[in-house]
Each structure stands twice: as structure tokens, then as C-alpha cells.
């Protein structure tokens, strides 16, 4: 390496090959070392300069026709057959068809969320069939054994104790909160066609407006009285299969007993 030109040629090859610093110091010296440091130093980003500097504020040095040639627009136009290439404009944003109201209430009014879910019939577990004895796991009658009668339109299960044996009346239960046992009861003589979700619907009474005297009086708690029709329906259902329960030994005692876990019992090993 003797001249500056030879150093520059050598640097071009050096940029492509990784050289150990100790080896570089042996090969270069003096002017060659300075050129090597310049080549390896990070390049400083130069500020961009405009092609048409201002002579005074708002007045450029070159005219529009001069800048047309300096920017190379003539070449782009010639390349596309004498016409500038045009790009399709972006579609305009959709404007709402209804204008927003100028006035709105001070209090926010909650609007129900849009629900496009279509109701589907609830699948009944394969282990639950009419006459199956179920164990209720939650609620007022948890631990009680009941008899499954049918599945209602809402997907809930219609069950009964019977009421005469364990005090559980005709009621609806979610199948997620029951355990199906292998014990079955013959309910072929039971008629449950009249029982549906409307039968168990709660009657809503309209609240009366209170006067000045009644406003300060304490609310009286009214006891829920079971209609006589419900009592008659319960008796007729219980009487239809109470004989079939008494015909099986120990079945009446089994239904009357409450299920619970005791010490030493392993739930995962129980067979219901």
C-alpha cells in the first residue's frame, strides 16, 4: 500500500471482510491509518437542503418551469406516455345518515346492548331421564333427593320430593346443580302436561302510590300464601306415584334422607 488511491481500493475490500484490530495496525500506518479511521467512523447525517432556496421570504430562486426540469417530472411524464400517473383516491369516510340531536338529556340513559344470539333448546344430560332420582347441590333444598319429572321449555328441570316424603314441592331446578343417581322411580302414571314455565311465574302486583300519612309508616311484611290450586296439584302428583315408591323396599327412607359427606368419604370414588 503506497498511494491514497491504493488505500481507498484496499478499504473497499476491507469493508466487506472483518479484520482483527491487531492485524490492521500491522498493515497500515500514517496517512493510511487516518483514512481507515475516517472510513470506519459513523457517518454523520447531513441536513437536507431544498432544491429551490428562497431569495426572500416567499420568493424562490428558480421558476416553476425550472423546477419542473430539476425535479425530473418531465422524465416521469415521458415514461407514462406523456401523462402523469394517477392513483385512485381513497374512499371517503361514511357520513352518518341521521344528524345527531342538538339537545340531549343531562342524565345518561342506558340503552340495552344489541344481542343477536338466537335461543337454542338446552341439551339434557344423558344421565337424566324421567324418573331419575337427583341430588340437589345448592339452594334452599340442598342435599335433598328429588325425582325428575320432565324438562321445561326454558331448559330447567321439573322435580318433586315428593312433598309428603321430604318436603320438596314441585319446583324448577338447573341441571348444573344436581347429581344424577342410578336410582329410578316409575312415573308412568304421572300427568305433568299442565306444568310449564308460566305455571311457576311470579305474579307482579302494581305498586300503589303512598299518601302523606302512609309515606312515614313502616312497610308491613306480607307472608307469601301458597294458592289452593298449587296445593291440590301437589297432592295429585304425589298420590300418582307414592304407591310405586312404597313398593320398593327402603326407597322411601332413601328419598327422605339428606345427602351429605362424612369423615372418611372420598367424593371422587362415590358411585351414585
Automatic annotation (TrEMBL):
SUPFAM superfamilies: Translation proteins SH3-like domain (SSF50104). Residues 42-100 form the Large ribosomal subunit protein uL6 N-terminal domain. One of its GO terms (molecular function) is structural constituent of ribosome. Pfam families: Ribosomal_L6e, Ribosomal_L6e_N. One of its GO terms (cellular component) is cytosolic large ribosomal subunit. GO terms for biological process: cytoplasmic translation; ribosomal large subunit assembly. Residues 81-123 are annotated as: Disordered. Keywords: Ribonucleoprotein, Ribosomal protein. Transmembrane segments: none annotated. Belongs to the eukaryotic ribosomal protein eL6 family. This is 60S ribosomal protein L6.
Amino acid at each position: 500500500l503506497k498511494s491514497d488511491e491504493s488505500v481507498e481500493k484496499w478499504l473497499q475490500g476491507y469493508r466487506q471482510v472483518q479484520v482483527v484490530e491487531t492485524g490492521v495496525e500491522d498493515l497500515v500506518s500514517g496517512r493510511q491509518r487516518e483514512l481507515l479511521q475516517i472510513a470506519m467512523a459513523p457517518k454523520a447525517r447531513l441536513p437536507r437542503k431544498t432544491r429551490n432556496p428562497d431569495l426572500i421570504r416567499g420568493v424562490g430562486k428558480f421558476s416553476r418551469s425550472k423546477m419542473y426540469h430539476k425535479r425530473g417530472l418531465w422524465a416521469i411524464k415521458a415514461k407514462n406516455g406523456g401523462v402523469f400517473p394517477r392513483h385512485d383516491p381513497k374512499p371517503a369516510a361514511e357520513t352518518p345518515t341521521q344528524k345527531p340531536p342538538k339537545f340531549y338529556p343531562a342524565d345518561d340513559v342506558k340503552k340495552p346492548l344489541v344481542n343477536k344470539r338466537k335461543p337454542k333448546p338446552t341439551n339434557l344430560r344423558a344421565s337424566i331421564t324421567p324418573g331419575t332420582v337427583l341430588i340437589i347441590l345448592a339452594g334452599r333444598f340442598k342435599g335433598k333427593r328429588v325425582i325428575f319429572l320432565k324438562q321445561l321449555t326454558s331448559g330447567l328441570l321439573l322435580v318433586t320430593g315428593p312433598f309428603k316424603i321430604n318436603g320438596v314441592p314441585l319446583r324448577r331446578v338447573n341441571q348444573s346443580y344436581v347429581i344424577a343417581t342410578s336410582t329410578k322411580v316409575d312415573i308412568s302414571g304421572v300427568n305433568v302436561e299442565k306444568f310449564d314455565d308460566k305455571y311457576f311465574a311470579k305474579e307482579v302486583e302494581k305498586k300503589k302510590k303512598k299518601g302523606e300519612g302512609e309515606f312515614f309508616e313502616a312497610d308491613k311484611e306480607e307472608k307469601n300464601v301458597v294458592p289452593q290450586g298449587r296445593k291440590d296439584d301437589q297432592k295429585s302428583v304425589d298420590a300418582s306415584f307414592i304407591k310405586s315408591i312404597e313398593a320398593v323396599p327402603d326407597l322411601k327412607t332413601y328419598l327422605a334422607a339428606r345427602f351429605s359427606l362424612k369423615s372418611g368419604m372420598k367424593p371422587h370414588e362415590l358411585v351414585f
